[in-house]
Write a structure and sequence with these properties.
alpha+beta; Phosphorylase Kinase, domain 1; Aminoglycoside 3'-phosphotransferase, Chain: A, domain 2; 8 strands; 18% strand; Aminoglycoside phosphotransferase domain-containing protein; Kinase-like_dom_sf
């Protein structure tokens, strides 16, 4: 759920940290606030004297947990994928406030709208062949880039597939680097790929499988994804689809995207 923090205290703490980060980075806000999942992040358009239009994204965590994959992901992605189409990272600013740590990421402002306002695609998209060519190139570059970061673990797969998809868990033999949260709300109409904090190794084809699974309510677009991202039509791609189905069904069990439950179960049935 994309909404402010659940308590007024948490909201005010985040807003105070955002104000302090804006002052330190020398920016002026020019757009409305946009809260992330359960108020864990806060984004807002801004203007910088040198960089022009920017986007300030603020992430927060208890002070003793301000590290790890999600905390460092944006900065590490900027270094790992210099040729991939994504927002340029201009600056980072860390600060502590009231027992919490905050990281402000000042990035290039992307004017192109995302292909969907939310992860679940609800309307068909007719995207040009050149759009898919560029997206495939970026996904290939990401997959071929070595990283020590992990997006999906074999241990989680061993638990999640029997529990949520009702199928035995395979031993993954082909791994590749993945964006890790690859859906149309994180891809613009250019295309530019947004939100890199969760990248890491995953089963080969994981990003393509996630894009497909989140598009099951738009069957024509889902069919296009299978055609344009051919890894999905390989044994590795079928395995990635099962892993993603379990991932999203686990999310559904927590109340997210209930409309995907039946299509995801149908997908699992078709794969086995």
């Amino acid at each position: 759920m994309y909404s402010p923090p659940t308590t007024r205290t948490d909201e005010q703490r985040t807003l105070a940290a955002q104000s302090a980060a804006a002052h330190a980075l020398g920016i002026t806000f020019t757009g409305p606030r946009q809260w992330g999942y359960q108020g864990r992040t806060l984004g807002q358009q801004a203007r910088h004297p040198a960089h022009g239009a920017c986007w300030l994204r603020l992430i927060s965590a208890p002070a003793d947990k301000a590290n790890g994959k999600l905390w460092d992901g944006t900065a590490e992605a900027a270094a790992a994928f210099p040729t991939v189409h994504k927002p340029a990272l201009h600056a980072l600013h860390d600060l502590d406030h009231d027992g919490f740590a905050f990281r402000a990421e000042l990035s290039e402002f992307i004017t192109s709208p995302t292909c969907s306002p939310e992860p679940v695609l609800r309307t068909e998209r007719n995207l040009a062949p050149a759009w898919w060519t560029r997206l495939r190139s970026d996904l290939d570059t990401v997959a071929a880039t070595h990283t020590t970061r992990v997006a999906v673990r074999q241990q989680w797969i061993a638990r999640a597939l029997p529990q949520h998809a009702g199928v035995p868990a395979p031993d993954i033999t082909r791994w590749a680097t993945a964006h890790g949260d690859f859906h149309f709300a994180n891809i613009t109409e250019d295309p530019i790929i947004l939100d890199w904090e969760g990248f890491g190794t995953a089963p080969l084809g994981y990003d393509a499988a996630m894009l497909y699974a989140y598009s099951l309510l738009a069957p024509a677009t889902a069919a296009t994804i299978r055609r344009e991202l051919p890894v999905l039509n390989t044994p590795a791609g079928a395995t990635a689809l099962l892993v993603v189905a379990a991932d999203l069904l686990q999310s559904c069990s927590r109340g997210d995207h209930p409309e995907l439950v039946d299509p995801l179960h149908s997908l699992v049935t078709s794969l086995i």
